[in-house]
């Protein structure tokens, strides 16, 4: 299999987080000698705190503080011993009080992350299966990686997609004993709820179905005794439901708790639940604080605390509903989400709210899809109505400014989040006083001015000219070739071929639409030129071979399994710099912004699943533009080119190589040339065409490094009608094998681009002879020789097998792409499969 450099998820996340840190909205430090819960101080600035997950404010309750202080004085800072041996004196009281709250004996864990690691591998048996909601908390997903080592199937569905869930249940029904669906009760980003009632109906329909809920964000502020959202809906915990609650966050202390009705299972978890056995137990101070909190939860006071918070939630909602702010999932949870779509808008909005004196959380990738970036706002009992009102006024005032400052618009935000209802325009500025009198002391004078807000950036359309076409025939041939010719197969003639081969195809996976953009200034000077294709991509196209091999097994039953509709720059048939940018022109950045605006409009019109800009060389300016506009950078496979073909003999070519490569060439390539009859043709016989296509299929089926659909034979047959295409055929000379004479063992499908570039676009090989006769290397060498014969100055060798191509003098060029996706589902699913592979291989 050809090896390529795959994108590393950690690198992608690091880039996003690093960008947010540079903008001053992440990895901050609170200052001061005390905290009240109502305010924070950051970089010397005091702010109202709208980012806590302590929704009831119990972490500041004097009773919890005094209990923790007393426990330290009586028992020390910790009790350094496993609970398997002995629990410190306060544990029994805590377990008793949690049992009173739920009516079920609990299991107390150090935190929810360690709790899931203790519980999930114990309760899920080897004969079971698991289905994850793709937004279930990371700690649940991480614990499930341990199941894959044991061969337990772990599937994933799109967020709260019950149709997809039922399909997965049906798939696992005959394969598994119990089927576990794992979800959050309340999701931490959008504040939306798990569809509990619908899930219980599914349990009735499928008795194998068991439910595992992480309800840490539903605790305390909801339910009898503050037992959480899930139990508030269920009333009583069914036998087929396991429930995780928290003793931190809203509970005000530390730790987590598991509830289940199966006494034997509970004892099994306690007896050998990984971290329960081998990790340290909760510190005395944490247990004492949790006891004090449990007392509050068991008293009538919890109801008044819940009511106080719910009043503030309803007040916040009532103010927000009077605005045109794009709030997502506006329900009665204390978690609110203001959609910004673009990361830069979120950064600007957070900075503006910071300056107004309000601390809020930016919600960025990977917690949300890159184009679903926004602001997460959480309410607590600490917040008072005057600052809640002030926050809404500040949001309403500054949101249009943040949009304008980042080149965004309310329409773009609505499209990104699928908000289709008609709502009033956001006002440029308010008639009423802002800020309100009680808030003025928090607002710097320079932020009180108003600026003009334009819904769409019409200025670009007055200084730039745009040509948009759906066929290359309507694009000036000379201009196109001057801008984008001389590389790969997408000069003007190459695109004519591709339109003929892939447009209106009966084959859905190879049926593409073409979209061309040329942007000039008013004098006609080209600034940007590019093309996009719209069609199906395999979601694992750039995943590792091991992932693709697993998915290809499933595609034997469903050929379109895990595929997406993609609007992608360039095409799956081409590689190289698909976008001409006149970087020296003063309007270059404006032209790029106009292109992005037009392409995103098309993306939404086509209802594509993903938008991809490729293949760019690393460029800091472009990286900033694309990231701030809501694109995620990923590494693409490296590409290989040979620039210098000016040699007059094989000896001269050999001398141009490095000493090590020269030795390789003279030993492993040149001697094998005499084993072949080498024929170059622009037309193939029917037999050659059919056999050459089989050889192409051999390579395609053997190489999943870049996993695309197999092209139909008609694509290859249409090459023969174009003078730019030719074929290099390698016949093996008679090796005194009686059963076969002069077989066709290798073929290159080559394109001649504008009398400048030679492109060995596709390859076919008979693997029976590949190793013995160094067939792949020989095909590469023959392409080099042919380019020299044609006096073409450059060879585009494409991606994959960079090691082999480098040894023949190729330069390897790193490339990146920028993507937007409707959601993170496919990427997260690839991640779970990749983690499974690494775990199994021990890497």
Automatic annotation (TrEMBL):
Essential cofactor(s): pyridoxal 5'-phosphate
Coiled coil location = none
GO MF annotation, one: transferase activity
Query: What are the protein's UniProt keywords?
Result: Transferase
Q: Which PANTHER family match?
A: CLASS II AMINOTRANSFERASE/8-AMINO-7-OXONONANOATE SYNTHASE (PTHR13693)
Tell whether 4Fe-4S is among the UniProt keywords. Answer: no
Every Aminotransferase class I/classII large domain range = 47-386
Q: What name is this protein filed under?
A: 7-keto-8-aminopelargonate synthetase
Which Pfam families does this chain map to? Aminotran_1_2
User: Taxonomically, what lineage is the organism?
Assistant: Bacteria, Pseudomonadati, Bacteroidota, Flavobacteriia, Flavobacteriales
